[in-house]
Amino acid sequence: MGFQMGRLAFWAALAISAVMVSAPVTPAHAQEDGTDIDLKLFGTKDLPSNSTGCHFALWQANRDPATDKYAYLFYLPFSEDGAPLKARMKIGDEFIELYEIAQSQEDTVGGLPRHFAYRSDKPRYRVLIELLKVGDAGSMAPVTEADIYVVRSKKFPFLAGAKASTVARARGR
Fold it and tell me: Nearest 5°: CA angle at 161, between 61 and 168?
C-alpha cells in the first residue's frame, strides 16, 4: 500500500528531476556515454500473465499496442482482490520490477489520482507517473495524456509522453 504523498512533495521531486531534463529523448536513442537511461518499449508478448485482466498500462504517445509490435512503457497488473502486483518496465535488455510507493490523494484527474510513484530494488530506479488528461469514468477512464519520469542515480532523468485507452484499477487504491 502506498502512503499519501503531498502535492508539494511531489512537485519538489518532479522539479528536481525536470531541471536535469533538457529535452525528451525517444526510447530508441540513448547516448553511448552511459549517462542516459536506456528506456525501451515492449510488446504484448512481453506482458506478464494476469488471470484477472485488470491492469494499468501506459504506452508511448505516438504508438498503439493494437497495431505496433513495441508500444508499452509501463505495465501494472492487479490481483483478484484489486491489489497491485509488481509493475514492469524495460530498461536496456532487462525488465525491471517496480513497486508502488505513493500516489497523490488530494489532486485527482478524471476521478483518478494524478500522481503515482514507483521504485525498483536492483538496479535502483524511481518512476513518477503524472496523468495529465483523463476522461471522467472513474477506474475505467481513458488516459489521453500522461508523462512518465524515470530517475536513477548518476543518470540523466528520462521523460516519456504516454497514453492509455483504459485503466482498470480498483477504486480507493
Answer: 70
HSE-up (13 A, CA, CB side) for residue 125 = 29
pLDDT, tens digit only, all 173 positions of the chain: 444 555 555 544 444 444 333 334 444 444 456 778 889 999 989 988 877 788 889 999 899 888 999 999 999 998 888 888 999 999 999 999 999 999 998 888 887 889 999 999 887 899 999 999 987 665 667 888 999 999 998 888 999 999 886 545 443 44
| Beta strand ranges found along 5-142 (DSSP E) | 39-40, 55-60, 72-77, 87-91, 94-103, 108-109, 112-113, 115-119, 126-134
Backbone angles phi, psi at 133, to 5 degrees: -135, 120
Helix or strand run (H / E) with residue 14? helix 7-19
What is this structure's pTM? 0.73
Q: Distance between CA 57 and CA 69 in Å, rounded? A: 15
